[in-house]
Design a protein that fits this description.
The complex is a heterodimer of chains A (about 210) and B (about 260). Chain A is mainly alpha-helical and about 210 residues long. Chain A has a single domain, classed as MetI-like (MetI-like fold). Chain A is about 80% helix and about 0% strand. Chain A contains nine helices and no strands. Chain A has helices at about 5-45, 50-60, 65-70, 75-80, 80-105, 110-120, 125-155, 165-175, 180-205. Chain B has about 260 residues and is of the alpha/beta class. Helices cover about 35% and strands about 25% of the residues of chain B. Chain B has a six-stranded mixed beta sheet with strand order 6-7-8-3-9-10, sandwiched between helices. A four-stranded antiparallel beta sheet of chain B has the order 2-1-4-5, covered by helices on one side. In chain B, α8 (about 170-190) links the parallel β7 (about 160-165) and β8. Classes of the chains: A mainly alpha (about 210), B alpha/beta (about 260).
């Protein structure tokens, strides 16, 4: 790519990268705010785990382009493409976060939970002092999988006009300009790698040697 | 002397109807250690767990400090009873010091007090606080972990200590060191102890009273010397099971 290309598109790439990050970040926060409490809830009522995780699983199987399309005619959502994008991305992020929160807490050594109850920790103390810190590496791993997947899927959000790096890719495809396709794809891939690395580091920080 | 713990016609059956405890009644005098013996599945652990309401009896009641334990606030009851188990259940993400002080922490006591108490207790169970306070459980040996578990159980100065096979996973030498340490400690503290064990020697060494359970029933509840001379078939069977290698020991005639 020539320097002319960058002087022409550099600013746009930067803006779209920020937009891409915002879409994905907002979706992750939204998804985590639902999936982490839901995962904790399932550990308290394990008979619901299978059906609820099953629903999250089905959401994941919906092809992304179809998902964006389905949401387009929904009243309040349809007004702003970003709303559709964030909701759809959050739907994809639910499963890994939910599943890992549930499995992370259920996987804690039974004797640790037993003692936490037996020495008189309240339910909230047990959750915040014992269960969540010990499950944190798993929850973060779920968040990491979700983030990396969603950074990829977010490129398709441009199809409904939500912006992000997908815009350059779609424009590149339409005008048969591979430079534009790459200008969208490379930053998206870098974002995914960066998020993967950063969340991986965080995950390791929380890991407790057995 | 007064009863610190009293089992009154305690029975427990699972939801499937399996009877784990069958009409058990006996009392633990304040400041004494009662060792509960019995086969695996005889109900020892279930009985121990009725004291801090980890198990709620399906019939009968358990009196703690003279009052039915169901009348006490659950959290307060549990914080007032020390709890030690074979697997230790140390919190792997807490330092040794924080593990020991955790009951004080959840009670909201100030940090300096917790640190001071942790240090005292670590020393009391034979661990140098300078060396061990800032270690994590995975950096300790089995015996050291068990010492930390005991220190944690004693931190809030409970009048009752429940111990479920605390030394069951340790080698015989470490186990005997732990038994000595515990005996010295208990002599000073005047704590009432319910000790579940498989080990007859441990029961005789530490117990002021011995209770033998079989299939959920209390077979006998006596002082150690009465236990050793008992003609009760279940007690004799228990003894025989423990002394099968004795004739190999030096100077002992085969029986």
């Amino acid at each position: 790519m020539s320097s002319g290309f960058f002087s022409q598109y550099g600013g746009e790439i930067a803006t779209l990268t920020v937009e891409h990050l915002w879409l994905t970040g907002a979706a992750m926060i939204f998804a985590a705010a639902i999936a982490i409490p839901a995962g904790v809830g399932l550990t308290r009522a394990p008979r619901w785990a299978k059906p609820v995780i099953g629903i999250a699983n089905i959401l994941q199987t919906i092809p992304s382009l179809a998902m964006f399309g389905f949401l387009l005619p929904v009243p309040w959502l349809g007004e702003r493409a970003a709303r559709i994008a964030i909701l759809a991305l959050a739907a994809y992020a639910l499963l890994p976060i939910l599943r890992n929160t549930y499995a992370g807490i259920r996987g804690i050594d039974a004797s640790v939970i037993e003692v936490a109850r037996a020495i008189g920790l309240s339910d909230a103390q047990r959750l915040f002092k014992i269960e969540l810190p010990l499950a944190a590496p798993f929850i973060l791993a779920g968040l990491r999988t979700a983030t990396v997947t969603c950074i990829g899927i977010a490129t398709i959000a441009a199809a409904v006009g939500a912006g992000g790096l997908g815009e350059l890719i779609f424009r590149g495809v339409a005008s048969v300009d591979n430079r534009l396709v790459l200008a969208g794809a490379i930053p998206a891939a870098l974002l995914a790698l960066l998020a993967d690395g950063a969340l991986g580091l965080l995950e390791r920080r929380f890991k407790v040697p057995a | 002397m007064s009863a610190e713990i009293e089992f009154r016609n305690v029975s427990y059956a699972t939801q499937q109807g399996r009877v784990l405890l069958d009409d058990i009644s006996f009392a633990l005098e304040a400041g004494t250690t009662t060792a509960v013996l019995g086969r695996s599945g005889s109900g020892k652990t279930t009985l121990l767990r009725t004291v801090n309401r980890m198990v709620e009896p399906t019939d009968g009641e358990v009196l703690v400090h003279g009052k039915p334990n169901v009348d006490a606030d659950l959290i307060t009851l549990r914080r007032s009873i020390g709890y030690v188990i074979q697997e230790t259940g140390l919190f792997p993400h807490f330092t040794v010091e924080r593990n020991v002080g955790v009951v004080l922490e959840v009670e909201g006591r100030p940090r300096e007090q917790r640190v001071r108490r942790s240090k005292e207790l670590l020393a009391a169970v034979g661990l140098d606080p300078e060396i061990f306070a800032h270690r994590y459980p995975h950096q300790l040996s089995g015996g050291q972990r068990q010492r930390v578990g005991l220190a944690r159980a004693l931190a809030a100065e409970p009048r009752i200590l429940l111990m479920d096979e605390p030394f069951g996973a340790l080698d015989p030498l470490t186990r005997s060191e732990m038994q000595d340490m515990l005996r010295d400690l208990l002599r000073r503290l005047h704590t009432t102890v319910l000790l579940v064990t498989h080990d007859l020697d441990e029961a005789l060494y530490l117990g002021d009273r011995i209770a033998l359970l079989g299939a959920g029933r209390l077979i006998t509840h006596v002082a150690p010397d009465e236990f050793t001379t008992s003609r009760e078939p279940e007690v004799e069977a228990y003894f025989r099971a423990f002394h099968r290698g004795d004739h190999r020991a030096k100077g002992v005639q085969p029986v």
